[in-house]
């Protein structure tokens, strides 16, 4: 996907505004003459900064939620651990959504790094599944006691 760069052109200031600077004082004569043509017109890009993909923003929100949960002291309690697991699960879902985009698939299929990244993601998902099963077993054992 090729980005487009839109341009906008600023028009020169009105004569009453161009004779004074932003602080209200008159500019030096040499500086005004030297930069009058360059300062009269200038183009600037209106495409920067660009917005990121909504799925990427969603992923960043989930990363922030997991980091906030990890820094929270009562996260070691049973309800805190369940909330943390839910946040990690939502993070994995957001990452899966990002990797499911056609642009991500195309980028990953062209590089050797893509295979390593996908293998690491699968190991992470397997570890999360194993951890979640262990927490469920702990809950069952806790209910029996």
Automatic annotation (TrEMBL):
Q: Which Pfam families match?
A: BPS1
Biological process, per Gene Ontology: root development; shoot system development
Instruction: List where Low complexity composition bias occurs.
Output: 8-31
Residue ranges for the region (Disordered) are: 1-31
What InterPro entries does the entry give? Answer: BPS1_pln (IPR004320)
Coiled-coil stretches noted in the UniProt entry, renumbered to this chain: none
TM segments? Answer: none
Superkingdom of source: Eukaryota
The protein's name is: DUF241 domain protein
